[in-house]
Amino acid sequence: MPHLIIDTDAGIDDAHALMMALKHPNADIAAITTVNGNVEVEQVTRNVAKILDACGVDAPIYQGASAPLVAPHFFAKHVHGDDGLGDANLPESPRTAEDEHAVNALLRMVDDAPGEYTLVALGPLTNIALAARLDPTFPSKLNDFIFMGGTIAAHGNVSFVAEFNIFVDPEATHIVLDSFPMATMLSWETTMQHSIDWNWVIAWLAADTPLGRFNAAISQQIINFGKSVGGESAGFAMPDPLAMAVALEPDIVLEAQTQYMSVELNGTHTRGQTLVDWVDRYKQPHNIRLITQVNLDRFRELLLQTVQ
Ligand code: BDR
Ligand code: CA
C-alpha cells in the first residue's frame, strides 16, 4: 500500500475518514496537513490532534492555509459544530503542529520520495493549489491524488449546484484541475448514491469500545443535521470516508470513468460548480477520474473496523 498524506479540514466526516485510515491494518500515514474549511485552520489542527489521541497513533501534523485563495471565509459550523467535532467537549490534546507550513511539507516530502505518496484531500483544495503553483512538478511526483469534492450532475449541497469543498475555494480548484494531469474525484452525487441506512449507522454508533464512544460523542451533531436535511429515507451521507476508502483499497471501486472537468469561477448561481464535458465537446485531454460506484459491503466493513 502506498504511503498516505491526508489533507483535511476536520470536520466530523473527516474524523471518520481519519479513523478509518489510522485503524487500517495496512495503511501508512506519513503526514496529516490541515486546511481552512469546515472551521478555522487552527481549530482543524486541534481536532486532528484529538483524533490521533483517540486512535492512539502518531503522525506529524502540518498546519496549512488559513483562508481560501480569493473567496471570503465560508464555514460549515452548522453541520460540524462550532468546534468542528460536534461540540462534544473533548479534552484538548498536548500534540501540536510541526513548525513547517503544510505546503512546504508537501513539497519537501514528494521531493524526497518522488512517486511514493498518495495524497488524499478531504477539504478545500487551497494547500494543494499552492503546492502545485509553487512547484509545477508537484503533481507528477505523487503516486496518486484523490479528493472529495465537486458535483457531476449539478446537485449541490451548498448552492443549487456546488459542493462545499469546491464552493469554499473555486480558484484553488481551478488551479488543481489545470495543473494535475489526472486526479481521482469522489463527487457529492456519488456520495449520496452510497448513503448508509440509518439503522446501520445507529448500530455503528453504539459500539462499546473507546473509539466507539469517541465516535458517538463527535457524531451526534452531523447525524441531527443529516436527518434534518435528508429526512429518514435518504440515509447518512459519508463523503470523506468514501474518498478515504478509495485511497486505502483501490479495489473497492466498482465503476469509474475519465473525463475532462472545469470549474465555474463566475456565475450568479453557479460559482464553484464543477463541470464535466460528458461528450468531449472541447476535445481536451481528460484530467479527472470520476468514481461512480463503490463496493458498499466492503465500505461498511471498513467503517466497522474504525470502532473496534
Ligand atoms: C464535504 O464538506 C465538508 O463539510 C465535509 O467534511 C466534506 O469534506 C462534503 O461536501
Ligand atoms: Ca472535509
Report on this structure.
The protein is α/β, with parallel strands linked by helices. The chain has a single domain (3-305), classed as Alpha-Beta Complex (Inosine-uridine Nucleoside N-ribohydrolase, Chain A), CATH 3.90.245.10. The chain is 40% helix and 16% strand. It is built from 12 helices and 10 strands. The chain has helices at residues 12-23, 41-55, 77-80, 102-112, 126-134, 164-168, 170-179, 188-193, 198-205, 210-230, 239-248, 296-306, and strands at residues 3-8, 28-34, 61-63, 117-121, 144-148, 183-186, 253-259, 261-263, 274-276, 288-294. Strands 3-2-1-4-5-6-10-7 form an 8-stranded mixed β-sheet, sandwiched between helices. A two-stranded antiparallel sheet has the order 8-9. Strand 2, helix 2 (41-55) and strand 3 form a beta-alpha-beta unit. Helix 1 crosses helix 12. It is globular, with a radius of gyration of 18 Å. The model has no long low-confidence stretch (mean pLDDT 97). Calcium ion binds next to loops.
Short description:
This protein is 40% helix and 16% strand. With 308 residues, it is α/β, with parallel strands linked by helices. Bound molecules: beta-D-ribofuranose and calcium ion (CA).
